[in-house]
Model the fold of this input.
Amino acid sequence: MQITFLESGGFAGAIRGVRIDAATLPAGEREALERLVAACGLAGSCELNTAGGRDRRQYDLAIDQDGRIDRLTCDDGCVPEAARPLIAFMAARATPQGPGFMLPAASRAADWGRFDGQVIARWEDDGRTMTLVEPFAYIDPREARWPAPAGAVVNGASIPRPFWSLIGGPFAGDFRDASVVHDVACEARDRPWRAVHRMFYEACRCGGVGAVKAKTMYYAVFHFGPRWRVEERTTIVAGTTQTERIVRDETPAAATEAEVAAIERYFATHDVAADDIPTLEIPPPER
Done:
């Protein structure tokens, strides 16, 4: 049995985690851990969120028993009572982690496509950007390929910063792979922005992000993320026809803290179909 734990978010946005293989523990500690796992009552995949829970710490737990992976995602305001002792056991052993620390996905269903390769990157000196060392790609459910070539520089800027408090940063846990290909596609701008943001949602689900959080972030990037319009200008120079591609930036204004809170509350209390998100208008917060 292998247990992986990730703690992220909060005001500091730090990422802490630990991965424990029960077989490597001393007998007494192994037995104690096995009792905590048996008592936590986790089966399948469970995602819980506190309405209006911005800046709360988020806990992600994966229990791998002979290839069967049970997952729990929650924030510190809604930890199931039965799981509290196990969360405390893992949190006490967690240490600071970099962007490469990932949890195993409960399911990487074919419906969400697949990733080709792994994100191998180096942090740059500014501490905010990463440069891909090896090529990486996401193949969506329609078999369209979304490449992130070696040498691409990513920084999570394609995800509106006001929403980072909901995910612990774009390179935290299950969001990382989707964030990388989304960053590259938003920089290249060679596909329609609507298709790019839909890809982000599907890549999130492929990476193991829960439905509620993935839809929340799909709404965030669709309504507040990068947008562009492409024009083609044709001219004749010395008898030769030349076509120039012009990209117009149309990114909307950033979301306010009140809007972010309203969006988070809405998705915590409403079951929204992903196909409805582009036309969904969440009521603005009351003043």
Summary: The helical segments are 27-40, 84-91, 164-167, 176-188, 193-206, 211-224, 257-269. Residues 110-279 form one domain. The first strand starts at residue 2 and ends at 9.
